[in-house]
Amino acid sequence: MEERNIAAPAYVYMMRCANGALYTGWTNDLLRRMRTHAGGKGAKYTRGFGGETLAYAELLEDKSAALRREAALKKYTKEEKEALAAGFDPARFVLLRPARPADAEAVLGIYSHYVLHSTASFLYQPPKLEDYRREMRTLCRRLPFFLAENALGQPLGYACAHPWRYGTGAYAWDTETTIYLAPEARRLGVGSMLYHALLAALCRQGYWNAYAVLADPNPASEAFHERFGFVCEGRQARCGLKNGWQGVSYWLMDLAPGRTDPPEAEPRAPLPGELAALAAQARRGAGWREMAGLEQPAEEKEQ
Ligand SMILES: CC(C)(COP(=O)(O)OP(=O)(O)OC[C@H]1O[C@@H](n2cnc3c(N)ncnc32)[C@H](O)[C@@H]1OP(=O)(O)O)[C@@H](O)C(=O)NCCC(=O)NCCS
């Protein structure tokens, strides 16, 4: 597949300074920029007045769009800026980015809830933090891993992929997808953003099949996967013992629709910057097929 040059995330934001003024700026990394302002190392202006809290943010298409929007915002009257700030809630502003091993605690915080309180995961106990961080380090070298958080830096959910079965030889083009949302972040569209980014990344890397293995029953996850176009390939009863016997269902997303020719090479690792760019596009509403350069299926075009 042809590698398309895709843009890095670019935000414009307004910071509420200690004197009540609103400072406008742009950045590629909103949370880091907020920490810089709060630490007194931001712009000269906020250093003077004390950068306090994020008052407003927008995610733009690329740096040039952010610079244009920043210039436009700077011309807004105080009332116009205040109106934008009044409609902004940092707890509901979603940020999507590639996860790093340093995010292991945040990821595990979400996953542990489902291990301890549901059959969505068949584990009895959450993995130990150090073990999980090590696993993430290995996974992130090879496969996409995305984290959603809000503008307060609170984790909302994650999606990642694992090797399918041996992950090598004849199975090299297959992968298993995983997604978990913090309970309070469900049904807000965050899962869809994460999955669009994940499937786009897997497809661009050269994977042909994405499998999801769901506890059976898991009506929310089934509806979610069905909505994406995953097809249920079968159900297995009585294969996991957790709060009684549980079954699983297997779901497939064809990442190489219509292709039968043998692939020329095994899937590649994510390219530097690629996952951040896909995350930004998914956050702005792009679909995974569009980001991977695939045709939209006819039924989706009609929606
Ligand atoms: C399954 C899960 C990842 C969905 O994520 P989400 O962010 O809540 O999903 P979205 O808001 O993006 O929903 C997208 C679509 O999926 C379907 N869907 C999602 N949750 C649903 C639910 N509880 N009931 C019915 N349909 C649902 C709907 O079609 C929805 O579109 P709509 O809101 O326009 O109707 C989330 O519910 C979750 O984390 N569940 C617990 C953990 C889990 O089971 N993970 C899967 C392990 S295989």
Order of helices and strands: EEHHEHHEHHEEEHEHEEHHH
Which value, in Å, is the CA radius of gyration?
Answer: 21 Å
CATH topology group of the largest domain: Aminopeptidase
CATH class assignment of the largest domain: Alpha Beta
The set of bound ligands, ions and cofactors reads: coenzyme A
CATH superfamily of the largest domain: Gcn5-related N-acetyltransferase (GNAT)
Number of domains: 2
Strand order of the largest sheet: 4-5-6-7-8-10-9
The CATH architecture name of the largest domain reads 3-Layer(aba) Sandwich
Strand tally is: 10
| Number of H/I helices | 11
Write a brief caption for the model.
The protein is of the alpha+beta class and 303 residues long. The protein has helices at 30-38, 44-49, 63-74, 78-86, 104-117, 129-142, 190-205, 219-228, 274-283, 288-292, 298-302, and strands at residues 10-17, 22-27, 51-60, 94-98, 145-150, 155-163, 174-181, 209-216, 231-241, 245-254.
